[in-house]
């Protein structure tokens, strides 16, 4: 994105939202995410807002902008770097073009269970290591939201890995996802989340890959009637903060927002596991069939990709080794 476009977007956002006018006025804290208001991400940020305003409501006015109302994640991340937006829930797949080490979470079948994945992404040491380049990146992860496992859903059944061949699937932006789909023998079509429904309707793509909530919250289950549990990826949505915003805070206020991120994380996890069970039942009523596949066959297809990705992106090796060791040493 050109600097003119970034500045133009920032000015537009500023004119719409307004900035705190004086030292006497409350500081407006803007939070952006791409989901609807019943989604666990939003529930997490409501907990964030309530925590901050209960502790320092005289100083901070926290405003949440859901449903991509401020734009796609890649664009909003630029605004976070400029401190036009202070917090954002963003998939690691959308961050890897800004810092290549975040691509580690796009490596297929990195974790062998969802519980191991959830423990890893909420480990304070992991978050600190991810944020070690924050001054250069312009943003810092303070917490993580689980996004479950990513699976394939499509207009036709995906029962074996060979059923992917020749089909076009939407993936999140990022070179790792494109390479993964090529390894599966399918074509990757990166696009923003908000464009997927119309692309499915119009036949631009044959399917997509995500968790069960995409079927219901985004209504993808109206078009795609088959959801296959291969569990090829587990990518968290990180709670990232503007480094410019954090750097201006007192130690007390910085801890306030760090603690708020932990509250958001806790609330999102609780809401997530409840909502997934509900979404699956809701999707069944929409006519969606859930298919259990041989995940090992999918895994074997892309395991050789691990070394290729590490060779091409050495920046993620330290985090890859840490994740692999964590996965191997944890029994649950």
Automatic annotation (TrEMBL):
Superkingdom in the source lineage: Bacteria
Sorted UniProt keywords: Receptor, Signal
Keyword presence, NADP: no
InterPro entries found in the cross-reference section: DctP_fam, TRAP_DctP, TRAP_DctP_sf
GO annotations of cellular component type: outer membrane-bounded periplasmic space
Cleaved signal peptide residues: 1-25
Protein name: Tripartite ATP-independent transporter solute receptor, DctP family
Taxonomic lineage: Bacteria, Pseudomonadati, Pseudomonadota, Gammaproteobacteria, Aeromonadales
């Amino acid at each position: 994105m050109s600097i003119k476009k970034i500045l133009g977007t920032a000015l537009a956002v500023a004119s719409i939202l307004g900035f705190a006018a004086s030292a006497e006025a409350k500081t407006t804290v803007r939070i952006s995410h791409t989901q609807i208001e019943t989604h666990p991400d939003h529930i997490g940020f409501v907990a964030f807002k309530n925590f901050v305003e209960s502790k320092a409501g005289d100083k901070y006015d926290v405003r949440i902008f859901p449903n991509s109302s401020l734009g796609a994640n890649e664009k909003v991340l630029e605004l976070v770097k400029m401190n036009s937006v202070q917090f954002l829930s963003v998939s690691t797949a959308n961050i890897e073009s800004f810092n290549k080490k975040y691509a580690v979470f796009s490596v297929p079948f990195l974790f062998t269970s969802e519980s191991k994945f959830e423990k890893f992404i909420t480990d304070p040491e992991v978050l600190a290591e991810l944020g070690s380049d924050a001054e250069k990146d312009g943003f810092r992860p303070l917490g993580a939201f689980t996004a479950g496992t990513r699976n394939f859903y499509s207009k036709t059944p995906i029962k074996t890995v060979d059923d992917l061949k020749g089909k076009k699937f939407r993936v999140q932006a990022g070179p790792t996802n494109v390479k993964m789909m090529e390894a599966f023998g399918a074509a990757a079509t990166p696009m923003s989340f908000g464009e997927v429904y119309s692309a499915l309707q119009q036949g631009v793509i044959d399917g997509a890959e995500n968790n069960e909530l995409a079927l219901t919250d985004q209504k993808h289950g109206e078009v795609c009637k088959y959801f296959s549990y291969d569990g090829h990826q587990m990518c968290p949505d990180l709670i990232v903060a503007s480094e410019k915003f954090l750097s201006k805070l007192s130690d007390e206020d910085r801890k306030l927002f760090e603690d708020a991120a932990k509250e958001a994380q806790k609330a999102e996890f609780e809401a997530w596991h409840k909502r997934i069970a509900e979404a699956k039942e809701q999707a069944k009523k929409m006519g969606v069939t859930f298919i259990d596949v041989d995940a090992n066959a999918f895994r074997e297809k892309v395991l050789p990709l691990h070394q290729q990705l590490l060779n091409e992106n050495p920046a993620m090796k330290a985090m890859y080794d840490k994740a692999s060791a964590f996965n191997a040493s944890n029994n649950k």
